[in-house]
Design brief:
The complex is a heterodimer of chains A (186) and B (176). In chain A, strand 1, helix 2 and strand 2 form a beta-alpha-beta unit. Chain A has a single domain, classed as Rossmann fold (3-Layer(aba) Sandwich), CATH 3.40.50. By secondary structure, chain A is of the alpha/beta class. In chain A, helix 1 packs across helix 2 and helix 1 crosses helix 7. Chain A contains nine helices and eight strands. Chain B has 176 residues and is α/β, with parallel strands linked by helices. Chain B has a single domain, classed as 3-Layer(aba) Sandwich (Rossmann fold), CATH 3.40.50. The chains are: A alpha/beta (186), B alpha/beta (176). Chains A and B meet through helix 3, helix 5 and helix 9 of A and strand 2, helix 3 and helix 5 of B.
């Protein structure tokens, strides 16, 4: 089992001009680790992170998009696995932090804590699928995960984190959306 | 009570004219879950039209997220769904289209609507509540039920992208 913020610190060392789509606890940890203009944290409805990511990937096939989704969020939009696999954007990397809880909503368990998200993504038809529970292994393979043709999926098995502060006005700041758009179109 | 339209697929509304208006609006992506009102007159020909990229999704709210992502790339998308899918996607529409003021353009088939009636007077509860919900959410909407209504499509989509806000085009009868 890994810690999400440690995973993201490892990931951040490999991120340059990618769009990173993140929400809720993943967004809090990610923006703390990597505050950058190309973070996309205005999702608008739980679960749609993966769908926003697909739109960004379709619209800029020359750029890479990384989605950092929580397990509760993906459960709300499981069909997006099938949609993404069918559309098959080569530039989309879909990482799901599985901490087995709705962390932003009180830490209650997800309906099936051990659901096999990697298995679901594989069955949906993602081009490559990974399952990481060891930080050293993730560190060793993350560059390849990010560089290969997608859609790529990886489950990151992480512990529930310590209580986080959710600064939603900052995450959903319209000025950040505007800045993201300007940067993403360059 | 008025009699139901004997020919729901009446040529009173031309699918090819609607598709031409969609194209003239600069729409490149069509995001859809099939809707029986627009199935043969719109979705089927759009699926064969190389001028569009059709993305078939599993559930309608996915469309809202995908269209939002595309809008950050200045790519125009039309969401082609049924009114039941609109109702199912209200939270996504609330957050992304209304609160974030994203240019989300929806073409919504009014399933089982009686074309000779105004949607607010429909005998179908789901149809009857559509326009009041759109009004309450502050979403611009236009009824496309006769050939003359097709002229509303391009200006509505252009306005949505120019002003960055949502618009809903309600398809009140099956286009032929």
């Amino acid at each position: 089992m890994m810690k999400r913020d440690e995973c993201f610190r490892v990931l951040a060392r490999h991120i340059s001009d990618e769009a990173v789509v993140a929400t809720y606890s993943s967004a809090v940890d990610w923006v703390a680790v990597a505050p950058r203009v190309l973070n996309y944290t205005s999702i608008g409805a739980m679960g749609l992170d993966s769908s926003h990511g697909l739109g960004l990937a379709l619209g800029r096939p020359d750029r890479r998009v990384v989605v950092l989704q929580g397990d509760g969020s993906l459960l709300m939009n499981l069909g997006s696995l099938v949609t993404i696999a069918a559309v098959a954007p080569k530039n989309l990397v879909h990482l799901v932090a599985q901490n087995q809880t709705y962390e932003a909503n009180g830490g209650h368990p997800i309906p099936a804590p051990n659901v096999d998200f990697a298995g679901l993504a594989r069955a949906a038809g993602y081009a490559a699928v990974y399952d990481f529970s060891d930080l050293g292994v993730f560190e060793q393979q993350v560059a390849h995960v990010l560089e290969q043709d997608g859609p790529v999926f990886a489950t990151l098995h992480v512990e529930p984190s310590k209580p986080l502060t959710y600064d939603y006005p900052s995450l959903y700041d319209p000025a950040k959306r505007k800045a993201f758009k300007a940067a993403w179109q360059q | 009570m008025p009699a139901p339209d004997p020919s729901p697929g009446s040529p009173a509304l031309s699918g090819s004219a609607i598709i031409a208006a969609i194209k003239a609006s600069g729409i490149e992506y069509v995001l859809s879950v099939p809707d029986i009102t627009t199935s043969s007159g719109l979705l089927a020909p759009i699926a064969q039209d190389k001028g569009f990229r059709l993305i078939r999704v599993c559930k309608e709210d996915e469309c809202i997220g995908i269209a939002s992502g595309l809008s950050y790339c200045d790519k125009r998308a039309l969401i082609l769904i049924q009114h039941t899918g609109f109702l199912d996607s209200i939270n996504a529409i609330r957050g992304i289209a209304v609160e974030y003021k994203q240019p989300i353009c929806m073409m919504v088939g009014l399933l089982q609507h009686e074309p000779e009636r105004e949607p607010r007077a429909s005998s179908r509860y789901g149809v009857r509540i559509m326009e009041p919900i759109l009004d309450d959410m502050g979403i611009a909407h236009h009824l496309i039920s006769a050939e003359a209504d097709v002229a509303k499509i391009q200006p509505a989509i252009e306005k949505a992208y120019r002003e960055s806000g949502p618009v809903t085009l309600l398809i009140g009868r099956s286009p032929a």
